[in-house]
Amino acid sequence: MTAPHPVAVVTGAGSGIGRAIAAALVARGCRVVVADLDLDAARRTVADLGEHTVAHRVDVRDTAAVAALLDAVERDLGPVEVWVNNAGVMPTGRFAEQDDATLDLVVDVDYRAVVHATRLVLPRMLARGRGSVVQVASATGRKPMAGLAVYSGAKAGVIGFTSAVRREVRGSGVHVGVVLPYLAATPMGAGIRPQRGFRAVTAEQVAAEVVRLLDRRAPVAWVPRRLGALSRAFESLPLPVQDRVDDWLLSDRIGLGDRADDRVGDRVGDEGRGHGGGRAARG
Questions:
Q1: Which helix (H) or strand (E) holds 176?
Q2: Which CATH topology does 7-278 take?
Q3: Which residues are the active-site residues?
Q4: Could you state, in order of their start, the residue ranges of all structural domains in the chain?
Q5: 0.85 surpassed by pTM
Q6: CA neighbor of 198 nearest in space, from 187, 183, 180
């Protein structure tokens, strides 16, 4: 990065993982735009993180609003060197019982918004020959979970999309990468029990891997790191064996557990609540 305080934008940064990423980028020397649907949450984050942050309200589903945010940031602060697509929702519940509004919300926030934001910022970075776009996806994009069918599909789409874009921008000076966290101990993951033998990761662990990915200009980062090897080993097993392993691990309680009413979405902002049965209030 070339500027004294390179500009970074983090969506869904009012709380949870996004807030931790914003804090890590400030510590790295960036001037960080804390973008969130909940402007009050964004302002609280800015108040805590200090002078090198600024709050903006944005609904990532509104492509025009994201474009306006990008224009305002580059006009007022300078060229965006890092853009982190972190905003997300994770409603749980059986797919057959989820309504159209919930399905559309997940696809719009967790996949479509990522594609459109990347499409807006990437040409500017390519014209300058530098910059990084980081997508905060999920390990469920590689290891889909019952009760998270659409979420898993959207995150798998983000992983594939990012891999293809990385191929297109090779040699341009622009870096594109994706972070794959396990279940995180944030408001969005509250009330969800990890699989047997696993523990939830912290928002700070995810943020540290985002910074590491940026420093190494790596294409993929798993959180925790050992999860990548475990995922590859699991994928090599015959499907009936995978099912038996999932049954032993109690994997289905992540998406089909009975404590989902404790959860609050941490990456869209506003309410963003995700409940069992597939209900998710719009953030």
A1: strand 174-181
A2: Rossmann fold (3.40.50)
A3: 151
A4: 7-278
A5: yes
A6: 183
